[in-house]
Specification:
The structure is a single chain. The protein is mostly beta strands. Helix content is 4%, strand content 41%. It has 5 helices and 58 strands. The protein has a 6-stranded antiparallel beta sheet with strand order 3-2-1-30-29-28, with no helix packed on it. A 4-stranded antiparallel beta sheet has the order 4-5-6-7, with no helix packed on it. A 4-stranded antiparallel beta sheet has the order 8-9-10-11, with no helix packed on it. The longest helix is centred in the C-terminal third of the chain and has 8 residues. The chain is elongated. The two termini are 38 Å apart.
């Protein structure tokens, strides 16, 4: 069964991975790692700041953004963004057994230990003994200021005393099996919903759920509800006040009247879990106000769910330090904190204390922040996180006669966007075998041609793929760059050995020697309204009228730079040439050279050109973002003023419906990688793969943006 009550399932996820300030320029700025080895925070390592153990048993963020850690066998530490402070355990403060931390509205820190609660006001510590509870398990502070505490006095299994206690600012009230409808004295989890009702997982997560509305108690289990299991490991409440319960038999949603259950099989039916030998188990749960759900698993990482779209985050694709996620915490700034570990907290852990249950080598806390795209809702973003396309880079765009949008990429072959859905033509369907497809052309008969950087040309006819390479055809070279299909059905392909043509039967290669190209490195080809073929090379541009090859270059004062990357024609019949050093416009008689647009863009390299239905020319640059020329002036679109995520534009498409599609990427790394690498930590980096490398692997490098003009 599909999870309901999210936004329409046909919408593509719109998730921003970087802030629109400086996060685009800094890798890893949306991740932070707090571990026993070092702290990684906002692009910098703090190797001398260490938690002391990766077995984090409690975590909270205070009103000033300081991070508080309860660490098994160590005690309490707080990180203010610059340094880590340690509160040494003592009889006057607390023990090393910390299981709960919370911050109230006055920024007092409540620390739950096996000896009761200690409160820190910023200067001094005070002690609070909770009625009937000595070993503190949970501390939750409600919006109305009430503080709810659970735990036990003797032991967790018998829990002769315990239950849940509430502090209203003056007095404590204890609720237990004898004086309330609480079915067990041991409460494992506490969540307070939008109406102030308290929801509790009772027993050792094996007696279902109790609800307390301030007067009445309700108990939900398999016998009296559709709860799929009496073992409730996690509870969360979404923005619509739906209650979510994570169990070993599935995920249940309760709106107060009706239940909906998603089985584990359906829940984990998501790319990233195909090769797991064992079905993963649900362990932790959190829901953002906007309905985005985060699910922590027992050994398989994290699932993120939005609009019925699922994404897996694990050690293979992001910097989480363990695929065992025992708790998820969301702070007021919508940062997600994943408290990780190696194995479940079992009865032995609870009875004997977490500090003797073994340290998790790859545990600790990992923070992730995903800002939202609501700053620019008119720009829709598609990338390897918001779609099933797992490619690192997106390149060329084209539209067929039916209005379908086609996209080439590295690693995942061809992608087609039709009626708000994406289809992929990759190794499992067509045998593209993870090829890096670069260029793209569509014939009038809707044959799809894609050029590879290493494996020749692919032709998609319906659902049948044909591959042309040097070994199985007369294709002279396997590295293909820009492509077009002309009005006669001939395919023109750029390569580093000249321009190649194919009429369906015969392959021909046209070079500097054979036809007089100024250079054999051909970037792209273009057909104008008169049927002339223009060929952009590394030493100028060539016009072929069917008989004569005419060369234009910088020396002849036709171009600002001889590397001609792309070409387009406006409604006046003027041809625009994008080069590595600016623009050139040819009206059929004279040339205009544009090296500088305005104070914002004094020098620019052009990667792509397109013309919309209002005759605006869109200019995709290599480092300056997207530029619109309207005949009067120029407007620059970049990450600071639009949904253009990156300043490197790979391709531009204007559709028949006058939609603007832009293929973007981060651009090349600097020649000296140390210019943006943080210093290496003193200690060796666990878990084997450098944290920085893992962040770079997960850090999105490319996206496609759609904007309605």
């Amino acid at each position: 069964m599909v999870i309901k009550n999210f936004i329409s399932s046909n919408l593509i996820l719109v998730i921003l991975f970087f802030t629109f300030t400086n996060a685009f320029a800094q890798w890893g700025s949306d991740w932070a790692i707090y571990s026993s080895n070092y702290i990684f925070n906002h692009g910098s390592y703090f190797a001398n700041h260490k938690l002391g153990s990766n077995n984090v048993t409690a975590f909270a963020v205070d009103n000033d953004g300081n991070k508080w850690f309860g660490i098994a066998g160590v005690g309490l530490k707080v990180y203010d963004g610059k340094k880590l402070k340690y509160f040494k355990p003592s009889k006057s403060t607390f023990s090393k057994k910390i299981r709960a931390i919370a911050c109230d509205k006055d920024n007092n820190i409540w620390v739950g230990t096996n000896l009761g609660i200690r409160i820190f006001d910023g200067d001094n510590w005070s002690s609070v003994q909770v009625p009937n509870i000595r070993n503190i398990k949970e501390i939750v502070i409600a919006d109305d200021g009430k503080i709810w505490v659970s735990g036990w006095t003797s032991d967790a299994i018998n829990a002769l005393a315990g239950g849940i206690s509430m502090f209203d600012g003056k007095d404590w009230v204890n609720y237990n099996r004898k004086n309330s409808g609480l079915v067990k004295n041991y409460v494992e989890d506490i969540v307070i919903d939008k109406e102030g009702h308290v929801w509790m997982a009772v027993g050792l997560q094996d007696y279902g759920v109790c609800e307390f509305d301030g007067k009445e108690w309700n108990w939900y289990n398999r016998e009296n509800s559709e709860l799929p299991s009496d073992i409730v490991r996690a509870i969360a409440v979404d923005g619509d006040n739906n209650k979510w319960f994570g169990t070993p038999n599935g995920l249940a949603k309760f709106d107060g009247e009706n239940w909906e259950v998603t089985t584990l099989k359906d829940l984990f039916a998501v790319r990233g879990f195909e090769f797991l030998a064992l079905e993963p188990d649900l362990l932790s749960l959190a829901v953002e106000e906007n309905g985005v759900m985060w699910i922590g698993t027992k050994g398989a990482g994290i699932i993120r769910i939005e609009n019925n779209g699922k994404v897996v985050l694990n050690k293979e694709n992001c910097p989480i330090t363990s695929d065992y996620v025992k708790k998820i915490y969301i702070d007021k700034e919508n940062r997600k904190y994943f408290i990780t570990g190696f194995r479940a907290e079992n009865v032995t852990d609870v009875l004997l204390g977490d500090d003797v249950s073994g340290f998790e080598k790859f545990g600790g806390v990992v923070m992730y922040l995903d800002p939202n795209f609501n700053l620019y809702p008119e720009w829709t973003i598609y990338n390897s996180y918001t779609t099933e396309n797992k490619s690192d880079l997106f390149y060329s765009l084209a539209e067929d006669s039916r209005g379908n949008i086609w996209l080439t990429s590295s690693g995942d072959g061809l992608a087609k966007y039709s009626e708000d859905k994406w289809s992929f033509y990759n190794s499992t369907k067509t045998g593209i075998l993870g090829d890096m497809l670069y260029s793209l052309a569509i014939s009038e008969d809707d044959d799809i041609w894609a050029g590879s950087r290493t494996k020749g040309v692919k032709k998609l006819e319906g659902d049948v793929l044909r591959s042309y390479t040097k070994s199985n055809s007369d294709l002279p070279v396997n590295a293909i760059q820009g492509m077009i299909c002309d009005k006669n059905g001939k395919v023109w392909m750029g390569s580093h050995t000249g321009v190649i043509t194919f009429d369906g039967k015969k392959w021909e290669q046209h070079t500097k020697k054979s036809v007089g190209l100024p250079g054999n490195f051909v970037y792209n080809c273009f057909e104008d309204s008169k049927g002339n073929i223009w060929i952009g090379t590394n030493k100028g541009v060539v016009k072929y009228d069917g008989k004569t090859w005419t060369v234009f270059n910088k020396k002849m004062k036709n171009l600002p730079n001889n590397n001609v990357i792309d070409m387009v024609e406006d409604s006046k019949g003027h041809i625009w040439f994008g080069t590595q050093g600016g623009l050139a416009i040819y009206d059929g008689n004279s040339w205009e050279i544009i090296k500088k647009l305005n104070d914002q863009v004094s020098y620019f390299m052009v990667n792509a050109l397109a013309v919309d239905q209002d005759d605006n020319v869109w200019i995709g640059t290599d480092k300056k973002g997207l530029i619109r020329a309207d005949g009067v002036g120029y407007m620059v679109f970049n990450p600071s003023n639009s949904g253009i995520l990156y300043k490197k534009v790979n391709d531009i498409l204007i559709t028949k419906d006058n939609e603007l599609w832009v293929s973007l990427s981060k651009g090349p790394k600097p020649k000296d990688p140390s210019a943006y690498m943080p210093p290496k930590p003193d200690a060796p980096v666990d878990p084997g793969i450098a944290i920085r490398e893992k962040i770079e692997e997960f850090d999105l490098k490319s996206a496609v943006v759609k904007h309605k003009l």
